[in-house]
What does this fold into?
Amino acid sequence: MVLIEGGQKVLANFKPELSEYTLGALRRLGVEVELGAAVTSIDADGVVYGDKRIEANTIIWAAGVQASPAAKWLGVEPDRAGRVKVEPDMSVPGLPDVFVVGDTATIAMPDGKPVPGVGDAAKQSGRHAANVIKARLAGDSGAKPFRYKHAGDIATIGKRAAVIDFGWIQLKGWITGGHGDWPISIF
Ligand SMILES: Cc1cc2nc3c(=O)[nH]c(=O)nc-3n(C[C@H](O)[C@H](O)[C@H](O)COP(=O)(O)OP(=O)(O)OC[C@H]3O[C@@H](n4cnc5c(N)ncnc54)[C@H](O)[C@@H]3O)c2cc1C
It folds into this structure.
C-alpha cells in the first residue's frame, strides 16, 4: 500500500510529535508513505505524482471534498474548494438575510486559520446563525462574530493505534479493551 500525501507531513493539523508518530506507525504497518508530491493524474492503471508514476489496480482518492454549489447559486465568489466566504456573523457578503453554515461556508478563526470542516464546526456555526436570526427578530442587530471552539482531534491509524490531541493533553499509542495492556504515551 502506498500513501501519497501532497503536504510535507501526515496529519499536518496535529502537533509535530503526533504527526511523526503517525508516520512511523504507518510504516510499521507496511505502508509506503510518499510526502510532498501532489497527485496530478489518475487512470485505470495507475497514479502520477511529482515526476513519478505508480502502476496500481486499486486507487482510493481521499484528498478532500468539494462544497455544494451554493456560492454559484448565490452569485458570490467561492474559495478554492467552492465554499462561500461568509461574514463574521455567518451571513453572505452583500446578502445579509442569507446565512451559510457548515461545510459550505468558510470563515477564519482569530489566528487566521480556517475553521475546520468537521461536524462540531458545522453544529457550532449553525447554532451561531440561529442565534443571530433570533437576536435580529428581537430587534438586536449587533451580532457577535462567530467564534469556533475546537474540542480536539482524534485520528486512528489502522486498527490499534491512535493519536489524540485535546490541546491540554496529547496521547499516542494503542489501547486494548478487556484483557490488559494500555501502552499509551502521554506527553
Ligand atoms: C469521509 C468523511 C469522514 C469524516 N469524518 C469526520 C469525523 O470523524 N469527525 C468530524 O467531526 N467530521 C468528519 N467529517 C466532516 C463532517 O462530516 C462534516 O464537516 C459535516 O458533516 C458537515 O455538516 P454539514 O451539515 O455542513 O454538511 P453534511 O453533513 O454533508 O450535510 C449536507 C446534506 O445535504 C445533502 N445535500 C447536498 N446537496 C444537496 C442538494 N442539492 N439538495 C438537497 N440536499 C443536498 C447531502 O446529501 C447531505 O445529507 C468527515 C467527512 C467525510 C467526507
Remarks:
- Residues 2-63+152-186 form a domain with the FAD/NAD(P)-binding domain fold (CATH 3.50.50.60).
- The first strand starts at residue 2 and ends at 5.
